[in-house]
Design a protein that fits this description.
CATH architecture of the largest domain: 3-Layer(aba) Sandwich
Helix content: 25-40%
CATH class of the largest domain: Alpha Beta
Bound molecules: 2-amino-2-deoxy-6-O-phosphono-alpha-D-glucopyranose
Number of strands: 10
Order of helices and strands: HHHEEEHEHEEHEHEEE
Distance between the termini: 62 Å
Strand order of the largest sheet: 4-5-6-9-8-7
Radius of gyration: 22 Å
Structural class: alpha+beta
Number of helices: 7
């Protein structure tokens, strides 16, 4: 980790120089994905700078997704993303998709409650202004990697208490006989703003896929209106195409 020794060479603030050196070390492969960073104290001693300076540089790199911090075990170079290949022709849930890959799906709740519907939700879910909507917004995590942000809206007449959904939304809907059987999905490209980039631990402005799913019951009734943001560096969407006719 010798790159850090040159830290006080130029006139730029020390933490910026250290940040650049760490980035360089990662880029040149001196420390690889998943490798542990030396402790704050060791870096400070090696580079002859204060621990506060080291902390500032490290925190900036955690924010921009170059490093990850795990409670109790230290700071690591962010693991390389293994891309997820997602079929566009199967109506599956995030939990099922991850289970098929041997990964454990987890959610960090961002919002879970019952609200008056927005004009969009009224239109898509066929609700009147006096009805309510259950909103479930989650950061979706596979093993320890945040992959997507999903904001689902379900009519409160179908899901009166969104707190009943503890892990899988589709599993909860299935229990009451409301598992969707068909969906229409719209995919568009977006660049991430600051808040979402921080949640997904990727640099601000990263390319992402915005996916809107409207799903239906066998009766034709709309059951789900979900807007998701999937990491562009993590997903490949695959569809099989056939000749028309
Ligand atoms: C996918 C879809 C969402 C759906 C979710 C349900 O990720 N894009 O529209 O709401 O699966 O996942 P789960 O049942 O794991 O909560």
């Amino acid at each position: 980790f010798a790159a850090l020794r040159d830290v006080s060479q130029s006139g730029a603030p020390l933490y910026l120089q250290l940040k650049k050196n760490i980035e360089e070390a990662v880029k040149r492969g001196l420390i690889g994905p998943g490798d542990a960073l030396p402790s704050e104290r060791d870096i400070a001693a090696q580079a002859d700078i204060s621990r506060v300076t080291v902390r500032k540089a490290v925190q900036d790199l955690v924010k921009s997704g170059v490093l990850v911090q795990r409670h109790g075990s230290g700071t690591f170079v962010a693991p390389r993303m293994e891309r997820v290949e997602q079929s566009l022709s199967r109506l599956t849930s995030f939990t099922e998709d991850m289970a098929r890959r041997g990964m454990a799906a987890r959610s960090q709740w961002l919002e879970r409650g019952v609200y008056p519907p927005s004009p969009d939700e009224m239109m898509v879910l066929g609700l009147s202004a006096s009805e309510l909507v259950s909103r479930l917004s989650r950061l979706r995590i596979a093993d320890d990697t945040p992959l997507a942000i999903e904001r689902a809206a379900i009519s409160a007449s179908v899901l009166p208490d969104p707190h009943e959904v503890t892990s899988s939304l589709y599993m909860a809907l299935g229990k009451t006989g409301h598992r969707p059987v068909r969906a229409v999905q719209r995919i568009s490209a977006v660049n991430l703003g600051e808040a979402e980039a921080q949640l997904l631990v990727v640099p601000i402005g990263s390319a992402c896929l915005q996916i809107e799913r409207i799903s239906y019951l066998a009766s034709g009734k709309v059951i789900e209106f979900t807007k998701s943001i999937y990491r562009g560096d993590a997903y490949d969407f695959v569809a099989e195409l056939r000749l028309p006719g």
